[in-house]
Amino acid sequence: MTLIIVLAVAAALIFWFIRVQNNLVSKDELCKNALSQIGVQQSSRWDALTALAELVKSYNEHEYKTLRDVIAMRKGISGTSNVDDANTQEELMAQATKIINVVAEQYPDLKSNENYGKAMDAVNTYENQVRMSRMVFNDTVTKYNKLIRQIPDSFVASLLGFQSREYLKEVASKADMPSMNI
User: Fold this and answer.
1) Three-state secondary structure string covering 95-152
2) pLDDT confidence bin for 114, thresholds 50/70/90
3) What angle do CA 4, 5, 8 make, to 5 degrees?
4) What is the CA radius of gyration of the chain?
5) Cβ–Cβ contacts within 10 Å for residue 110, how many?
6) Bond prior to 152 in cis (omega within 30° of 0)
7) Mapping DSSP to helix (H, G, I), strand (E, B) and coil, where does residue 70 land?
8) What's the sign of the alpha-carbon dihedral 118, 120, 125, 129?
9) Which of 20, 27, 39, 99 has CB atoms 3.0–4.6 Å from 144's, for a disulfide?
C-alpha cells in the first residue's frame, strides 16, 4: 500500500512538472511570437517610410541622403530578437519620421502631394499596428513573468532555466514628435 501511495505521489509530481513545463514553454513561445509580430509591423512601416524617402528626394537631396542612411540601419525583428533590438528600431523610425516632417514643413507642396498623403496614411496605419503589437507583447511578457515568479511554478522555471523577460519601453523621442497627419 505504501508503495502505491509513493508511486501515486511520484506520478502526480511528474504530471504536475510536465504541465508546468508545457505552460512555461507555451508562454515563452507567445512572447517570441508577439515580438515577431512587432517585427512584421515594423517592416511594413519601414516600407512606407522608404516610399516617403523617395518623395523627399525630389525636394531635398541632403535630407534624402540622411533619410536613406537611417533606413539603411534597418534591422529585422524576429522572435529571437530582444527588447533592445525592437527599441533601437523604434528610435531609428522616430528619427526617420522627424526628417520627413522637417522636409514636409519646408516644402508645403510636398505635403499637398497626393502620394505623400497616401504614404503618410500608410505610415500612420502601421504606426498604430506597431503600437498595438507592442502592447500585446508587454501583456504577454506580464503573463509569462508572473508565471515564472509564482510559487510553485517558479521552482520548475528556475530549474529549467526560464528567465524573466524585459518589457518594451515607450520611445522617449516620440513624445516630442509632431503629428504625422497632413
Assistant:
1) HHHHHHHHHHHHCHHHHCCHHHHHHHHHHHHHHHHHHHHHHHHHHHHHHHHHHHHCCC
2) confident
3) 85
4) 23
5) 20
6) yes
7) helix
8) positive
9) 27
pLDDT digits (tens, 9 = 90+) for 150-167: 999 999 999 999 999 999
Count, residues in the chain: 182
Whether 161 and 81 have beta carbons less than 8 Å apart is answered as: no
Residue 82 is placed in which grid cell? 530582444
Number of other CB atoms surrounding residue 68 within 10 Å: 16
Report CA 52 to chain centroid distance, whole Å: 22
Percent of the residues in the chain that have a pLDDT greater than 70, as a whole number: 93
Spatial contact of 119 and 52, defined as CB atoms under 8 Å apart:
yes
What is the identity of the amino acid at 26? S
Q: How far is CA 3 from the centre of its chain?
A: 52
SS3 content of the chain, % helix, strand, coil (to 5): 80, 0, 20
pTM: predicted TM-score of the whole model, two decimal places: 0.80
DSSP state for residue 63 in the 8-state scheme: H
**Which cell numbers hold the place of 64?**
534624402
